[in-house]
Structure formats: C-alpha cells, structure tokens
Amino acid sequence: MGVVVLLLVSIVSLTASLFGSEITLQAKVVDEDNAPIDGATVAIRPASPGINSGSFQAVSDATGAFTLTLPQPGPYLITAGSNGFFTLKDRPADLHDGGNEIVLALNHVRNTSETVNVVESSSPVDIEQTDSEKRLSGPQILDVPFPSTHDLRNALPLMPGVLQGPNGNLHFDGGAENQVLYTLDGFNISDPLTGTFNTHLSVEAVRSIIYESGRFSPEFGKGSSGAMSIRTETGDDQFRYSATNFVPGIDTKTGLHIGAFTPRANLSGPILKGRAWFSDNWDGNYNTTVVPDVHIGPNSTSSFSFSNLLHGQVNVSPGNILFADFLLNYLNAPESGLGALDPLSTTTDQRSRAWFTSIKDQIYVARGTLLEIGFADLRTLARTIPQGDGLYLFTPTGHLGNYYVDSTQHSERKQLLANLYLPPIHLGGTHQFKTGADLDRIDYSQQTARTGYENLDVSGNVIRKTVFGGSGNLQQLSAEASSYIVDAWRIRPNLQVEGGFRQDWDELVRRVLLSPRVSASYAPFGWKNTKISGGYAIVYDATQPQVFAQAKDQYSVLTFYNPDGTTAQGPEISAFTIPSSHLQAPRYQNWSLGAEQRLPSRLQLTLNLLRKRGTDGFTYVNTLPAGTSPPLSIAANYPPLPFYSLLTLTNLRRDSYDSAELTVHKAFGKSYEFMASYTRSRASSNSVVNLSVNQAALVTNNFGPVAWDSPNRLLSWGYLPTFWKNWAIAYLLEARDGFPFSVQQIDGTIVGQPDSYRLPFYFSLDLHAERLFHLRGYRFALRGGFNNITGHNNPTTVENTIGSPTFLNYYGSQGRHFVFRLRWLGKDHSG
After folding, report:
1. For the segment 60-89, what is each residue's pLDDT rounded down to a tens digit?
2. DSSP 121-142
3. End-to-end Cα separation, the chain, in angstroms
4. In the structure, what pLDDT confidence band is assigned to residue 110 with cuts at 50, 70 and 90?
5. 115 within domain boundaries
6. Would residue 120 count as lying in a domain?
7. Same domain, 170 and 36
8. Distance (Å, whole) CA 308 – CA 318
9. How far apart are CA 32 and CA 107, in angstroms?
10. Backbone dihedral region of 644: left (phi > 0), alpha (psi from -120 to 50 degrees) or beta?
C-alpha cells in the first residue's frame, strides 16, 4: 500500500512540475487618477509559449476588478484596453502560486498635446455587454465635421438611430426628445419641465457619450427610447491647456462675411499631485444667423451664449474617491425664430440660465463591493419676450404681427442617488449584482401672459380669432422615487444573461410601476469574434410637469367669422382639464435583436433590429360632445360662454416604431477611422399633433407618421489619412427621406391625415481638410472645408396653407458654405 501511495505522490509531483498548478489572478483596471474603469477588456497570454499557450480574456466590472484562473505560474503578458483610453500593450507580469494582485493603469486619450490613438485592442467581442449600445468618443466628436461643431446637440446625430428633427429637436430610435434619460456623470440633466436635453457644454469637455436603447439595464429609469450618458474629462498630474476657434469664422451663405465666433478654452491639471485634480472647460458662442429667404425686413439676427463646466476629483483615500461638477449655462438670443415665413416682428427675445451642481462619493466598502452616493441640483430659468403686444397673424403667405406668448419659467430638480455594486457570487456560473435607489424633487413655476392670434384669408379678412383668459401664473410640484436590482449572470464563458426589475413612483401619476427587463448575449460554438444578443424590456416614460400644468394654465376663447366679417360661431371656450381618477403611466414594450461580427483588418459589422410598442401615452382629447356643456363643477371656473372643446388628459396615445440598422466601422492607423450605417425604419402615432394651450392648429384626425419619421437613412463619417504627412481628410455624409409635414386650411384646420406630405429628399456632404503643424514649441490644427459641398437644396420650411399663392414653396436651405477651425493644442511634447 505504501508503494502505491508513494507512486501516486510521485506522479502528482511530476505532473505539477511539467504542467504547473492553477493560479488565481485578481486585478483592477484604473485610470491615471485611480478611478475604476468599467468594461475594460483584458487579454493575458504566456510570455513564453508552451503547453498552455492560449490567450485568456476578462472584462472589468463597475469597480474595475476582474478575476482570472490561469493554468500555471510563470511570466505572462497583459494587454488591456477600453474606449477612450490608450491601450496598455503586453505589460509583463510574473505570476506565482498563491494570491496575485496587480493594478493596470490606463491613460485617457486627450486632444491636447498627445497624438490621438483610437486603436482598439484585438480582444474578441464583449460577451458581458448584453445591452444595445452606441458610443461617441471625444476624439470622434472633434474630428467629424458636423454642422455647428461647437454645439454638442449637433454631434449626437453622428450615432445611427439619432435624428435632428425639423425644429432642431433630437429623436432617438423613433422617440420624442423627452423620451430619453440624459445623464451627466451619472446624474439626470434633462430639463425638469419638459424632459428635453437643453444643457449646453463644451464639446472638448466630453470624454465619451454612450447611448443605450431597446434593451438596457434596469439601472436606467424612465425613458422608452433609452438612456444617454455623458462622461466628462478630468485632470491628471500634468497641466494641460488648449483653445479652439479663438478667431472669428468666415461664412459664405450669402457672400463672404464674418460668421460665428465660437471660442473655447480648456485647462486641467493637479490641485494636489497624486490626490486631487480639476478640469475646466469654457465655451462661448456669438452667432449671426442669415436667412436669405426673408422677404419683409431684416434677414439676420445675432445671439450670444456661453457655458462653463468645472469638474473635480479628490482621492480622499485609496478606497474613497470624491467627484464634483459645477455647470453654468447662459443664453441671450434676441429676435429668435427669424425665418422665411417669420419676419422680425414675429420673433421673440429668448433668455435662459441653468445652474447644475453635483457631488458624488465612491467608497470601497470591501473587496469587490463599491458604494456610490451622490446629490445633484439643477435649476433653470427661461424667458420669452415678444417684440410687442399686438396680435399674431397667420396669413396664407406666412406670419405677421407679434408673437402671442410672454412667459417666465422656473424649474428645479433635486436628486439623491445611491448605487451598490456587490462582489461576485458563484452559483451555476458567476452572478454580479447591482442595486440602487433614486429620489427626486421637482418644482416648476411660470408667469405667462398671452394676447391672441388671428387667421386671415387671402384677402386679409379675419376668419378665426383666438384670445386667452384666466391666469397664466401657476406652480406644479412633483416627487419621484425609484429603485432597481440587476443580476449579470455569466452562465458559461460564451453565454451571459442580465435580468432585473425597476420600481418607479411619482407624485403626479401616484402608481407603483414595475419594469422587468432581460437581455442576453451568446457567442455560438465558442466563436470569439461573433456575438448574438437580444432582449425584452418594459419601460415607462417620465411624467413631465408641463403636461399636467396645462390644466392650471390659461384657456382660449375662439370666434369664427364669415367672409363679410359677421360672426359665424362663438365666442366659445376651449379649456384643458385632468380627470379626478389616477392616470396610467405611458408604457412601452421593447423587443430587440442584434448581431456583431469582427472581421479581419479590424472591421466591425453590427446589425440591430428594434420593435417598440407604446400604450397609455398622455394625450389631450376633446371629451365634450358637440352642442353640450361641461359639468357645472368645471363650467363654474370659466365665464358664462358656450364651450368649443374640453380637452381632457387621457391615456389614449399609441406609438409604434420598427427599425433595422446595419453598421460598418473600421479603425486603422494611429488616429483614423470611418463608419457607415443604413437604417430602415417606421415611426407612427395616433397623437401626431401634441395639443396644448399654445397649439394653434385644429385637428380632427390625429393619426399618422410622426414629424421626424424618415424611413430610409444613410449615414457615414470618417477621419482619413492622405499622402501628405500631418494632413487628414474629414467628412460627413447623410442621405435620407425628407421629414413629413401637414397641410392646413386657412383657418388652421389640418386637412386629412397629419404629416401626409414630405419635404424633398435630404442629401448633404461636408468635406474638410485638416493640417497639424508645430509653431514655436506648440501644436496647432487648422481645418477648412465646405459644408453641403454639393449645394443640394435641403429646405427646412414649407408654405403649407391651401389657397396660398406660394403653397408648397420650400425655404430654409443652407446651401454650400465654407467654414474653418483653428485649434491650439498646447505644448509640443513629441520631442
């Protein structure tokens, strides 16, 4: 027996000496300021190829940590990378028996004195990412020549699925702008009143933008079209500074003249080296807008705005990191709204302010456990001032008179959030749990006075007159409470499932809402370069105070006239009301399916399918039968006049969106890449026209395509090398169906189905050349080129009144124009 035991011990010892024993590597991926990097891909391979010479991969969690089991001790080479960071290539590590703990530090890609590097690591597709995600990096935003490159809003349509509508509003995967959750460094920055993205910050302040739609984590709350996260730049132990467009631009829209002046300045560095850092980004904009199609009065107007974002980080201890933001926005835009059909007298002076303050503390409670607590305060002020107090006139050939709304609006959101990242649990695979809560308090108030408007026929006779009564002074409060739990379950190395629930409650709807969500990703047959993913989610839209405030706002009094000036009908009241019973919250069901394939030469192919169906949406509907009166409890609040309509808030809105999206992306060289995408989609609703007290159109049939529906869209952009050193070509190409619009009768009644006509096909090619050069120890980048270089007619406005002598005439095309940009990138550290 002793001989047998001795023989077994000898065999085990020999095997261990030949093949080694398994070892465990516990590592953490951080940036240069020791903040954790979530989602970094890590590849480890033996330094000396032997029996176990394969490559081993892992992805860091929210704490930056990952764990790998390796077959034997010895020397290894580690490669780590993440979007927005320089790749750490083949770092040597001598791993031994027992515990192995290492820290991998990645440096941010910065657009100052370094050479930008967008090279992605050669790691396989990320199985742990089950969400449908689209990204824009800081370098991409600065490299691609989109129109008005100082405005971050204009950069967002560089992502497939994101459109900028006819009024400049943003639309994500078929939704309205307020159907997306917008966050800045983790905090909600959407407008507390409308839910739209009105925050302005310098494009140089942005490290990355991540947009998740269709299937996304329960961590992200109300927003049927997804969540958009903005992550900002931070400082490090080196002082850095840069400036852009510090000389006025040249514009050629209506001849050669001084155009926009959009200076930007950036400064970052240490407060206390190794412990505290700051980053400050200032952005200014003095813009002269020329509208060549204006036929009455001046055809240009100017505006001024600025923003400043101050971001700070303090490492209180190695396990306690404090972050803070302060953002200030200012806008003064006199004579806003000048257009081909809107002369100077109809414009308004727009003034707005916004103040955003946030503080967040990340605390490492124990190994693999991270607690995040934060508070933010967002305050806004918006002022609209007409050019006079005359009536606003709708004529068959455009608008006259003075705009009819004079308002001051204040809003505020206080937000308290907490997130807890738990250590992995090994049970039928690996479970990574995350849970959190969010408390919000929203306060909105307004002081509004409306005059009225008239609809005129071709001869100048009044056929409809609308004036307003009641007080436009009101206050609307709301509170929100949310919580979530999510489990990222790695069942097998090639199969990941993420599931969880979200709970939401708000004071306006007063219902507890549960949102189950599940998504999965799978690499068939263990293929490392192929991933199939899909998911299902129930998502609720946020309850906007503006919708509920209408019942407290002014009411309109309508009078209709015959062509000879006699009264045909009225005066009659049109008012808004909210039912006494609690309403449902707008609810969406999202089905999504995707496939990702990495091809040779770092070519990536992605296919995404999305189906959204929305029910219980908020919409105001006339609930008063013709010839009847409202209940006395309602009528007693108004003058003793007949009622034209009683618009009641209901849950009758239904929305539908389907899309198929194919994208090709390739990065090459040190700083070059291109992207091409084709999207086929359809977006419709039974509430195309959003009825409100300020809405002048009369609607009888409200079903049709939404105003931003564009069934076919081709999008491509790139930053490409040339045959000449330090020269590059940047381009942006967009071709799509024109947006739909409605036609109306002279009295403002929409004819037939809304949005049954379309603007002409849209095509634009922006082509710029850029030269990097050195001067007196500093680096500069000079860019010049043409926007809409083909001069294609891309109108934004149409005369849509039947009977007008200019019916279906199109206006607002920007034409071809030359622009240039000069960037000062700081000191030259290349030599």
Report:
1. 777 777 777 777 787 888 888 777 777 787
2. P-----TT--SEEEEEEHHHHH
3. 73
4. low
5. no
6. no
7. no
8. 29
9. 6
10. alpha
Instruction: Tell me which of 36-40, 151-155, 287-291, 724-728 is least confident.
Output: 287-291
Please tell me whether residues 99 and 184 are part of one structural domain. no
In a domain, 788, yes or no: yes
512-518, long-range: CB within 8 Å, 24+ apart, which pairs? 513/540, 513/585, 514/538, 515/218, 515/539, 515/540, 517/215, 517/216, 517/217, 517/218
Instruction: Kindly report, residue by residue over 328-356, the tens digit of the pLDDT.
Output: 999 999 998 888 788 899 999 999 999 99
Rounded distance between C-alpha atoms, residue 471 and residue 480, angstroms: 28
Q: What's the gap between Cα 56 and its chain centre? A: 35
Q: Judging by DSSP bridges, how do beta strands 530-540 and 555-561 pair with one another? A: unpaired
Query: CA 51, 55, 59, 64 torsion: positive or negative?
Result: positive
Residues 6+ apart with CB under 8 A from 150: 202, 203, 245, 260, 262, 264, 283, 285
Closest CA to 139 of 203, 235, 211: 203
Closest CA to 677 of 713, 730, 708, 711: 713
Cα–Cα distance, 355 to 352 (Å, whole number): 11
- Which of 106, 124, 152 is the C-terminal boundary of a domain? 106
Q: Which of 121, 125, 104, 59 is nearest to 488 (CA)?
A: 59
Tokens of 61: 């969690």
- Kindly state whether residues 362 and 228 are assigned to the same domain: yes
> 484-530, pLDDT tens digit by residue?
999 999 999 889 999 999 999 999 999 999 999 999 999 998 788 89
From residue 103, how far is each of 238, 272, 275 by CA, in Å?
21, 22, 17
What pLDDT does 248 receive?
Answer: 74
The span from the CA of 610 to the CA of 732, in Å, is: 25
User: Which residue range(s) make up the domain with 76?
Assistant: 18-106
Rounded CA separation 767/784 (Å): 9
* Residue recorded with tokens 């419709």: 684
Residue 111's pLDDT band (cuts 50, 70, 90): low
Looking at the structure, tell me whether residues 162 and 64 fall in a common domain: no
**One domain, residues 793 and 752:** yes
Q: Is position 242 within any domain?
A: yes
Coil, strand, or helix at residue 13? helix
Count of structural domains within the chain: 2
- SS3 for 206-230, per residue? EEEEEEEECCCCCCCCCCCCCEEEE
| Residue the block writes with tokens 């409060």 | 477
Q: Are 45 and 147 part of one and the same domain?
A: no
Question: Which single residue is written with the structure tokens 């791993």?
Answer: 95
- Quickly count helices (H) and strands (E) in the chain: 5, 50
* Residues of the chain by 3-state class (helix, strand, coil), percent to 5: 5, 55, 35
Query: How confident is residue 257, by pLDDT bands cut at 50, 70 and 90?
Result: low
> Beta-carbon neighbour count of residue 334 at 10 Å?
16
d(C-alpha 284, C-alpha 207), whole Å: 19
Q: Is the pLDDT of residue 612 over 80?
A: yes
DSSP single-letter state for residue 761: P
The reply to whether 36 and 145 lie within a common domain is no
CATH code, 72: 2.60.40.10
Residue at token pair 């406005």: 797
Contact between 769 and 787 under an 8 Å Cβ cutoff? The reply is no
Strand order in the sheet with 74-81: 56-59, 41-46, 74-81, 88-95
Long-range CB contact pairs, 10-18, < 8 A, 24+: 18/51
* CA–CA distance, 391 with 450 (Å, rounded to integer): 10
Residue 157: what are its φ and ψ, rounded to 5°? Answer: -65, 0
Q: Which long-range contacts (CB under 8 A, 24 or more apart) does 627-631 make?
A: none
